[in-house]
């Protein structure tokens, strides 16, 4: 029987030799992203790098694949007495969360989009006109990619309240860790196999309010169980509909982390960002910063369906109270040197639920008259950043999709540590 290293090498060799992968699905480059038949391109170099990494991990005595078996494979695995030499078929090898997570990290490291969606249809076919105007496609906004954005966190979420599964990614033998979120104690956990993982309910804070500019989930080794080397191997998973890409969560930048008693491992968790460039859109950016300082929401909830009604109601209300605001804005040579026609800017934007639920505004957003082009262009950018985020879908089989997605609105400092990858 083949050992683990030989099995993985064999699978990779078959994949590279197969016409399915060598001719259509595996390329040295990543352009185009999808094959003609709608399969994501898996770069050939990724397979070669993966083969090298797994060979090195085999030398270290690690086997990252054992905990990634699906339910059927788990049963076969148990029937074989937990034989580590068991390995799945080639297609199942690629469907494993561990494989997909490694591919995502490889793509990020090679300055490629973290994920490729080959099932998407043009927005003009998929959404009604009212939504098209709110969330333009990536092509409509140069420099914007409709992928989740965050400059620091490698685990980007679409919900503020999330469930994370923590498990023993090695041999379950009674390992114990303490868990902290942003240095606040969460729980002491005895690590179990993946299928008996411990669920942790976490609430992510806005990245811009944290000194680390991302939520940090920290693990401290307390007990290494019966492991003779004193090793504690920690694995993490998110839940479908809460985290982008697959459900794997990187720890210490890798698929899992091994620490000793007293040792630490960390995972960066964050909501995706929508950035407003203060250089390109100075009046919009200034308005957002002022509103957030007053207590208006940094984390917003997607609700595009009610945008038009909210916006019309709010603008009419503001104009009744401030009938000369637009004219004063147009005449202001300091903030509007070209005396451009002004529009009423809202924060939070009308496409977000908090537009009508803002506590500082008594149920209304913060509003201000600013130059029209600044207003419309910044709104389009935020709409593009928000494109991957979904509204509630009660009919979805994925429970987390029964509630709408969240994201964080920020005005990043040029040259700062926190920004959208395509902000500037």
Could you describe the 3D structure shown?
The protein has 424 residues and is an alpha+beta fold. It has 3 domains: 4-119, no CATH class; 155-271, Lipoxygenase-1 (Sandwich); 274-410, no CATH class. It has 13 helices and 14 strands. It has a 5-stranded mixed β-sheet with strand order 1-9-6-3-4, with no helix packed on it. A 4-stranded antiparallel β-sheet has the order 5-2-7-8, with no helix packed on it. Strands 10-14-11 form a 3-stranded mixed β-sheet, with helices on one face. Strand 3 and strand 4 (184-190) form a beta hairpin. Helix 1 runs antiparallel to helix 3. The protein starts with a helix and ends in a 14-residue tail after the last strand. The relative contact order is 0.12.
Tell me how many strands there are: 14
What general form does the structure show?
A: elongated
The main pleated sheet reads as: 5 strands, mixed
Computed structural class: alpha+beta
Low-confidence stretches: 11-31, 64-93, 120-140
Order of helices and strands: HHHHHHHHEEEEEEEEEEHEHHEHEHE
Give the count of structural domains.
Answer: 3
Radius of gyration: 24 Å
* Strand fraction: 15-25%
> How widely separated are the two ends?
54 Å
Number of helices: 13
